[in-house]
Amino acid sequence: MAAALKEKQQLPQLEAAQFKLVLKCYEKKEFKKGIKVADGILSKNPDHGETLCLKGLLTHSLKDKKEEAYTLVRKGLKANIFSHVTWHVLGMLQRTDKDYKGAHKSFTQALRRDKANAQILRDLSGLQVHLRDFKGFVESRRDLLTANPKIK
Predict the structure, then answer these.
(1) Closest alpha carbon to 103 in 75, 129, 67
(2) Nearest residue to 44 (alpha-carbon basis) of 71, 89, 10
(3) Angle between helix 49-61 and 31-44 (nearest 10)
(4) How far is it, in rounded angstroms, from Cα 95 to Cα 23?
(5) Measuring CA to CA, which residue among 88, 82, 86, 25 is closest to residue 52?
(6) Which is nearest to 133 in space by CA: 97, 110, 101, 111?
(7) Angle at which helices 31-44 and 13-27 pack, to 10 degrees?
(8) Three-class SS of residue 19?
(9) pLDDT score for 1
(10) What would the pLDDT profile of 24-35 be if each residue is shown by its tens digit?
């Protein structure tokens, strides 16, 4: 079942390039442009979980649309529960809304899917310091440093 879900969630080459563009739009804080590109991907692949989650993240970044954002992220998570991207996006939303325990659970789920992802480890370790989980913080930072010793 997981293999069939993975195959269903693969984007064609053109849409994969557009997905990377959506990520860059989020990083550059071009939220409206990112939503338009995500809508283009979703018109061809309406059940692509990672795109739904990113659209939810972009929507959340716009003011007064939190409920719509959480709806999109939950729909994306249901579409692809095995993706580290979907869990990471959910954790980012929860952290933004100051639901730190929920964000910790989401980041932990994301780490189970992709153990060596530096960004997830970085987000989780910062959250662990905030929650005063110092043993967990030391463990995540050690994992981060062993995965990539060049990172400070």
Answers:
(1) 129
(2) 10
(3) 160
(4) 19
(5) 86
(6) 101
(7) 160
(8) helix
(9) 47
(10) 999 999 999 999
